[in-house]
Amino acid sequence: MKTIHTVKELQVIIKQHKKEKKTIGFVPTMGALHSGHISLMKRSIKENDFTVCSIFVNPTQFNVKSDLDKYPRTLDADSEKLAKAKVDYLFAPSVKEVYPSGTKKSVKVNLKGLDKLMEGEFRPGHFEGVVQVVHRLLDIVRPTRLYMGQKDFQQFTIIAQMIKNLRMKVQLVVVEIQRAKDGLALSSRNVRLTKAKRKWAPIIFKELKKIKRSMKSKTVDEAIESALDALGKPRGYEPEYVSIVDGYTLKPIKKWSDSDYIVAATAVWAGKIRLIDNIILKKS
Ligand code: AMP
To answer: Which of 7, 25, 66, 274 has the smallest number of Cβ neighbours within 10 A?
Structure first.
């Protein structure tokens, strides 16, 4: 695997591969890689002639500065994992490389309100930052396919809207959520959970699965209430939201029959760590 730090060097390589009509798979990440990320790499390697993984902790998508400062940075360990997975190129640029003329957000995309619901309500400016960085990285890498995880359901929905809105020539591939044995969705933030908080963390996926099982016996509101109640029970746990939404518009549904594509998503504070997860309840 070759590690590249500058846009210039990466673009020379990409240009050469494009000349040879090779397909390019691209996996953007913020590092602190775990097997969830590696599943995206493996899928990309399988489906493309070569794969580029970026590691860039994007300052513009953090609405709380301390969260940015505390974000784990483990480039050496990440690099080893990527080489083992047989990724071709690791792109690890500086903030200056990604934003040479400053970090001011300038991409104009009609997100149709997708960025204002769920996560958007609690993380103002977050998705603007995500759109800005993915747009910039796509402009640098110009991949055939872009790989993102279902774990960040709202994120890939917004990026799909950006691609559509700007008529970008890239195919978005969404990869299913990888979980620990006890059901906790893998996340770079999990290592920061205290032992006691980690012990209770499987409750998040358990409650999402419970919502799925209760679609026949409970109303949508009852299912949300019951999950909120359960997720607030472990010591130091506090659910920020449990939303049951249409998977395309992310708008809350009122009845199970309101949509053919329904997703339940949640964000839960486990002490100082914010965990997110989701489950597809129905897709036809
Ligand atoms: P991040 O570095 O957290 O921004 O994540 C980079 C990519 O990996 C995003 O597209 C995430 O949705 C995806 N990802 C994160 N966690 C998981 C997981 N547990 N399973 C599958 N994909 C994941």
So the answer is: 66
Determine the distance separating the centroid of ligand 1 and the alpha carbon of 43, expressed in angstroms.
13
In a domain, 108, yes or no: yes
pTM: 0.97
Which of the listed residues 37, 39, 187 should we mutate to test ligand 1's pocket, taking the one with most ligand atoms within 8 A of CB? 37
Q: Residue 183: inside a domain, yes or no?
A: no
C-alpha to C-alpha distance for 81 and 77, rounded to whole angstroms = 6
- Ligand 1 midpoint to CA 219 (Å): 31
Domain that holds residue 130: 2-175
Token couple for 92: 């690890």
Do 171 and 195 lie in one domain? The reply is no
Ligand 1: centre distance to CA 255 (Å): 30
* Structural domain total, the chain: 2
Degrees, nearest 5: CA angle 54-134-97 = 60
| Same structural domain, 245 and 133 | no
pLDDT per position in the chain (284 positions), as tens? 999 999 999 999 999 999 999 999 999 999 999 999 999 999 999 999 999 999 999 999 998 898 899 899 999 999 999 999 999 999 999 999 999 998 887 788 999 999 999 999 999 999 999 999 999 999 999 999 999 999 999 999 999 999 999 999 999 999 999 999 999 999 999 999 999 999 999 999 999 999 999 999 999 999 999 999 999 999 999 999 999 999 999 999 999 999 999 999 999 999 999 999 999 999 99
Q: Are 112 and 36 contained in the same domain? A: yes
- Give the distance from CA 257 to its chain's centroid: 28
